[in-house]
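Checked the freezer inventory, then went back to the computational side. Two predictions to log before the end of the day. The first one is the construct we discussed on Monday; recording sequence and tokens without edits.
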Amino acid sequence: MTFWTDAQLASIDRMLNPRSIAVVGATPRMQYGGRFLAAALGARGRVNVYPVNPRYDEIQGVPCYASVSELPEAPDVVGVVVPYHAVLDTLRESHAKGAKSAIVISAGFAERGEDDRRELQVELGRFAQESGLRVSGPNCLGLANLKDDIWASASSRGAAGLSGPIGLVCQSGASAFGPFLTRAVDEGIGFTYIVSTGNEADLDFCDFARYLLDDDDTRVIAGFVEGFKDGRKFLEVARLAAERGKPIVLIKIGRSELGAQAAGSHTAALTGVDVCYEAAFAQYGVIRVQDYDDLLQVSNLLARSPRPPQRGVAVVSHSGGISSLTADMFGQAGLDLPPLSERARDGINGILKGFGWAANPSDVTGFANSADFPAIMSYMADDENVGALVVASAGADAQAEQVIQQRDSRDKPVAFLWTGTRAAESGLPMLRRAGIPVFYVPDKLAAGVRYLNDYHEWRERRLGRGFGTAPDLTAQQQAAAAGLGGGKALSEYDSKRLIGAFGVPTTREELASDADAAVAAAERIGYPVVVKVDSADILHKTEAGAIRLGLQTPDDVRRAFAEVTANARAYDANAGIGGAVVQEMVSGGVETIVGVSYDSQLGPILLFGIGGVMVEVYNDVALRLCPVTREDTLDMIGEVRAAQLLSGFRGAPKADGDALADVLVAVSQMAVNLEGRLAELDINPLIARPAGQGVIAVDALAVAGG
């Protein structure tokens, strides 16, 4: 599926790199229209700026025009700051003039929760897509091109000279030009572009992220997202970002029910099921962070750092306490501080001469502010087991210059844990100007370095394995799925026939309409057997008393047939009962569960866990978006805490992991091909037998789509 056209990307390019800007609703007052005009005029001489308002002949020293149609040229971007009911007419007039794009600051659309306002927003989006005049907003604060210092924004804040390697896209304009911008100014973290997308009637986060993938100056895409209009569009952006080697770092609202409700009321966006997004982010290499500082600092670290050649980290400080705490945080983050080599240890001790401690972490006392500090850092950074160097200190410009030279002299990441005041006038400003990633608390630094390592390792694996694919249905599979529909559950017997067509091994079983047929089936299958009621209306057979296990004789089978059918009718008098299923008795192995559900935004989701009746209690499961690769399934199995049961726990034979992985791939491909026809699938238990003996589905439930 193609989500973007050349014309759409060209429209975004004009929006972000305009040579002419019209401000409809410009005003002398420093309200939204006045602020937008004042911001745009900051680029006067490089950008033609045209205020539009029939009430004025001149605003802020610039000639004002009565309408867009009277402008001397077709503007690259039109800033729209008019009442909500006048927005669509303004866009129509702008399109007629030949404008390339528009930023709608005006509010009063879907965020109000009123049907007529939602419909108006839909109409606005439809016009943008049909006309080709692409729109950011409504209900946004605009955008900024920091590379060229062009601000098409109604925010009162600006920041000249803040150019850097991060592209920031926020649905919330107040966040983009509020805490993100102010913190970036404070910390010297620079952007290529800042974009606020608001209600996203037309262009959304994914569209701007896609544009930034083509921007050579943008190394990392940072985002503040309340909800995705199209989850699969986001996945495609993430896939392309992996190919280009541009990390996506996100704050995604919706972790809690309260957060999800707030997001819906603020931008009328769907947040989706958060656990599904967590799975998507892990699978597609998206880094999810918690707060403003995390987003900026982690993005800056990723943008400014090469790939670490090793996971090992070396920490050096002027303080034993600071270095120990930092080391502790790195340990909790799952990173290693390898012991120094004998060469490094002897070299540092030769400098310290009995002071401090030559180790990792290293306490070098006052030598952190001496001419010997570069040699100490080199000994640590050059260790073959070290992939990144962390300096934890608060020195003056001389120390900062030494750290900068250390970073420039080798192809390993260098990060700084600043332990002094953030208002320092020496040392810290030089580090910031030089692009040294600076953190202020050890746990955030440790998390950042963990993200840096994990991202590059993930990307190498993902580029090697690719993303999953789903081959077309075979004739047998088409026939097996032909009856799906109506939103009804299938009986266990029919569910197994369905999954069997997609390569899932199932128990030997036969459907019997009476006791004699059940006995004959048992004779063919071989004792012991299981007898279960066959009914699509009774999903929990144990609860209904409609299953009998371990039957050894014909009399056992006759009695079981009578009991399970009678109990089923007593449990639900209206249930449709097609007799009973006689099934081989399976014992031993490890019970697992494999399931499929469909997220409204992300599509089919594959679930794996250790099965049985307690799976809902422990919720020890792993999720992936479908389709998956075989390597994805191995990762899934490894994520489940109880998966050690598959590895020969306490002397039990090791389970057939290869066969289990094959089934997970097959089910994920099935989920893709039956989307819209299948609503849910539950295989529980899927018995993982000892290695070499395969797996077998003992019970299954498929629910058809509506």
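The second is the one RB wanted added to the comparison set:
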Amino acid sequence: MAGLATTFGSGAMTNSNNDITDAACILAIGSNTTETHPVIGFNVKKAVRHGTKLIVANPRRIGLVRFADIWLRQKPGSDVALLMAITKVILDDGLHDSAFIQQRCENFDTFKQSLDNIDLASAENITGVPRNQIIEAARMYARNSPASILYAMGITQHSHGTDNVMAIANLAMLTGNIGKPGSGVNPLRGQNNVQGACDMGSLPDVCSGYQKVTDPAIKEKFKAAWGIDLPSDTGLAITEMFDAILQGKIKALYLIGENPVLSDPDASHVREALSNLEFFVAQDIFMNETAELAHVVLPGTSFAEKDGTFTNTERRVQRVRKAIEPTGNSRADWLITCQIAQRMKAKGFDFEHPSQIMDEIAELTPSYGGISYKRLERGGLQWPCPTTEHPGTQILHTQQFARGKGRFMPLEYKPPAELPDDDYPLILTTGRSLFQYHTGTMSRKVAGLNLFKGEEEVEINPQDAERLALKDGDRVRVVSRRGHVTAGVKITDASSPGVVFMTFHFAESPTNILTNPVLDPVSRIPELKVCSVRIEKV
């Protein structure tokens, strides 16, 4: 997450999964942890059973609420206002860690002054959270150290997601909850190798290990290794690529392991853009809705059919070992890429095994410098692991931050880009189900999972359902400014009044036709978590 990188160096967990059980207090915000990260959710529940205080900040009544000491039910998109109010209470009560701030941080006085305009009455009005709950949560977090913050895409997928992350970083630094067991700022990654993909430069502004493409020294380093000039400019985020396609700036696309027709916002726009490409290659293990638009489909292999590594949410690099031979004409992704490059007469793609690729990664990526397949045979290693003698790093920033001193960032609450009005009076927020995964490319092929959840439902609060004369099972049309989808009704108080919830697992009800593609100006992540809709009975 680009916002966190300013202070902490990368958008990775500062601590480890098992470290969660050492926390005296856990703040879980913007994360339905037990459904989207069930292993970590188990650790949270284990910690609570052993006395850890739990604060859950979420617009929905998620599973963790049953275990929480405090549930802050903020309005979608109001996280910055909530976090700044909590920070203000801690400062006013003198519960901040003055020694940590003085020794390890900067810009504190400016940050402190920026909170002068924060008052609990305004925070209550913006967030919908009663001021007494804000005060109670602030004191609980500050007085129970070490404290850990867990967050996920409920924080980042906003038009102000970077501000959300900065507010979390401010709160952790204010209380000295960085660099020690049981503490930290811990973003929970959305898929099994998202962390590894980011580490390897699958972002538009960095090479592997978050080495900036705009840094002349980094450019020269890779030029010497690869014998080619690298661009000095940053590239486009995926959501920006679709506009560029329609503007004629991108004419060909090679897509690997992604299904943006279901997963990206304003999905009709995505489909239109992909249909306008002169040449479109999709590479995946199953045919999906996006691959159906491709000129060429290349069959990749699943985790069980190839050797490689995954880097999980706690920065742990782990071996993936081939259990069966590739099915049919499928090939490992790395091999397909190399064979295409060889046919294009590119040099440096004559690898015979992924272990050789890892050796090159270690050579060019300081944080992976000490990682090899030989070492990984003895178990996973957490980066940074700069040398072959280094044991890996369980906790980041124990002595100092990646940038030296942690910088407090003054913030200002900004509302979501789209708010309810007379035409679209409800807020739609999106998420995942425990029983399906992402766009369903894999999980919907499992009959047992389909028995638990086999079609899309729109979750509606009983008050809204009564006003709209709806009952469980009714079919409705959910309409936004970008399109409409149909789904069945599920009446539940898991959704607060004025807020409806849908997943994006089902092609028959492609929820992301509705969502807003407006981007955070820094991270360029779209606002998938908040858009305005209306509901019409079919």
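For RB: The CA atoms of residues 337 and 349 lie 8 Å apart. The two ends are 40 Å apart (CA to CA). Let me know if you want it refolded.
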